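Exercise 7b. Backbone tokens:
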């Protein structure tokens, strides 16, 4: 494969894919944790708009930017891939969890989660301030005043721009799995398989 900025030029599967930015505090779960675990559940989301993204718009095979929030500096740190979405979040049913929702039932769960897989890690954080200075990212939702959503959609152009910023700084070699699209069956009525780890405080 040809090299871009000194790393393999992996051809991401773009057909029908959407693009996302997923935020998490690194002291809760970081890109390093995801690189170690391979996959994880992105749970404890308690915002209806984000829940609707997970239910209506996000699909297996979509790609996302992993963003460290409330960090020094906050910014984009790598790429992940959506494995499953619209999965009932088990924390809503657990009375011991701070995310327990007694109004939610297994027959009609209120809160959903997704499962994600590690793709690549940027060699350095692409800071929020740096992204503010990029014309290609001027309309990105995370830069809009008052936006505090933990998951927001990206255009393909925004995703590509952030990825290229990360690659210009160097990046860990992407997972070979991103070279072929892996179709994940819909969840349906089946219980979600247990992810490698679970993310809190969405």
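Sequence design result:
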């Amino acid at each position: 494969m040809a090299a871009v900025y000194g790393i393999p030029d992996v051809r991401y599967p773009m057909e029908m894919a959407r693009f996302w930015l997923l935020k998490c505090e690194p002291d809760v779960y970081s890109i390093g944790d995801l690189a170690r675990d391979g996959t994880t559940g992105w749970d404890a989301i308690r915002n209806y708009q984000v829940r609707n993204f997970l239910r209506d718009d996000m699909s297996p095979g979509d790609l996302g930017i992993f963003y460290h929030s409330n960090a020094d500096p906050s910014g984009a740190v790598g790429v992940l891939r959506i494995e499953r979405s619209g999965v009932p979040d088990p924390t809503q049913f657990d009375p011991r969890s701070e995310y327990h929702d007694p109004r939610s039932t297994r027959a009609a769960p209120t809160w959903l989660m997704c499962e994600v897989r590690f793709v690549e890690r940027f060699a350095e954080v692409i800071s929020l301030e740096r992204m503010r200075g990029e014309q290609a990212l001027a309309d990105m939702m995370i830069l809009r005043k008052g936006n505090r959503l933990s998951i927001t959609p990206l255009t393909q152009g925004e995703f590509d721009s952030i990825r290229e910023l990360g690659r210009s700084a160097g990046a860990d070699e992407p997972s070979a799995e991103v070279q072929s699209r892996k179709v994940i069956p819909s969840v349906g009525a089946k219980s979600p398989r247990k992810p490698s780890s679970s993310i809190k405080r969405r």
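Instructor comment: Confidence is low (pLDDT under 50) at residues 1-12, 176-198. The chain has one domain: 16-173.
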